[in-house]
Amino acid sequence: MAALIYPPKPRPGDRVAVVSPSAGLPAIFPHVYELGLRRLREEFGLQPVEYPTTRIMGADPRERARDLTAAFADPSITAVLATVGGDDLITVTPYLDDEVLQANPKPYFGYSDNTNVLNHLHRLGMVSYHGGSVLVHLGRPGTLHPLTADSLRAALFGSDWYDLSPAPQWGDEPNDWNDPDCLADEPVMFPGTGWHWQGPARVVEGRTWGGNLEVLHWLLAADRVAPAESLHGSVLLIETSEELPPAVEVYRMLRNLGERGLLAGFPAALIGRAKAWEFGRRLTPPEKAAYAQQQRAAVSRAFAEYAPDAVLVFDVDFGHTDPQLIIPYGGLARVDPLARRISVRY
C-alpha cells in the first residue's frame, strides 16, 4: 500500500474547525456542546471555529460538505474536529471538493458515522484520526476521562509513537443529555477487564483501516471502499454502535468483507469494546456480558473462516464506550502479542 501523508499538527493557541458533517446535535444539546468547546479552549488551548451548519439539524448534505471543504481550505485552521456521529454522512462525502482537501491536508478527528470521512481521506492519501467527539468525549459529564484526554492531546499535538493502555474503568451507560443537570455527575463506570488476545504470537505492524462496522458495510454497498489488494497488510479497526447489532449480523457483515477479499489481507485486527447498553435497550449486567461474548464469538468465527492466522485484540477502548482512545486512521500501528502491547504513531 502506498504511503499516506501525516498532515501537520496544530499547536496550542491555534484555530481549529468544529463541524457537524453528520448529525447537527449541538442544536439539540447546546449545554453538552458548550462544555466540549470550553474544554477545547481551556484544557487543550485551542480556539474552536464554528461553521454555518455546525448547530443545524438536518442541514442539506451539500451545505455540510461545503462547510467541511471550507474548513480544509482555510489556511488559519490547523485541525478539524467533528461534533458527533449520526447516520447519513454517506450522502455528504460525494459533494466534498477532493482537490481542496488534497491541497490542504489537515488532521481530521471523528468516529462512528465519521467513518465515511475517515475512509474518504484515506483514499485521498491522508492520515486522519478515529475518535475525538466534541459532544461525547470532550463534553463528557463530570470530568474528561484521563485516558481520553491524554490520548487526544498526544494525537493533536504529537507525532511520536504512543502506547495505548487498557482502561482501569470503562462505561457504556451515558448520562441523559436531555437533563442539563446531568453534566455535574460522573457517568457510571465498571472495573476494567483488560484486552483479550487471540491468534499467533507474532508482532504485526501496518497502517490502520476500518472504523464502525455498520458504516463500513454501507460503504461496501455504495462501492466506496478501496480495492482489497490495496488494503492488504493493514491493521483492521472495527467497532459497533449504540444500535447494538446482533451477533449474527456482526458475523454476516464480516463475512461479506471476507467474500470481498478483505479479511484475508489483514494480519491483525483491533476490536473495540462492544457497547451493550442504550436508553432504549437497558440490558442487565448478565445480559451485557452475554452480548459482548456473543460479539467476540462472531468476530472470531469470521476470522477463523477467512483469516485464521490474524492476531486479534478484543475490548480495545476506541469505539462507542468510555474512555475513547484515539487511533490514527491510515497511520501506523504495532500489535505485539508477546509484550501484550499496542502502539500507534500519531
Give a topology summary.
Layout: E1 15-19, H1 30-42, E2 47-50, H2 61-73, E3 77-82, H3 98-103, E4 108-110, H4 115-123, E5 128-130, H5 134-138, H6 146-157, E6 161-163, E7 169-173, E8 188-191, E9 196-198, E10 204-212, H7 213-221, H8 228-231, E11 235-239, H9 247-259, E12 268-272, H10 285-306, E13 311-316, E14 327-329, E15 332-336, E16 341-345
Parallel strand pairs: 1-2, 1-3, 3-4, 4-5, 10-11, 11-12, 12-13
Antiparallel strand pairs: 5-14, 6-16, 7-8, 9-13, 10-15, 15-16
Describe this entry's structure for a reader.
This protein is of the alpha/beta class and 346 residues long. It folds into 2 domains: 125 residues, Murein tetrapeptidase LD-carboxypeptidase, N-terminal domain (Rossmann fold), CATH 3.40.50.10740; 177 residues, 3-Layer(bba) Sandwich (Glucose Oxidase, domain 1). It has 10 helices and 16 strands. The strands form 3 sheets. The chain has an 8-stranded mixed beta sheet. Helix 10 links the parallel strand 12 and strand 13. The two termini are 19 Å apart. The mean pLDDT is 97.
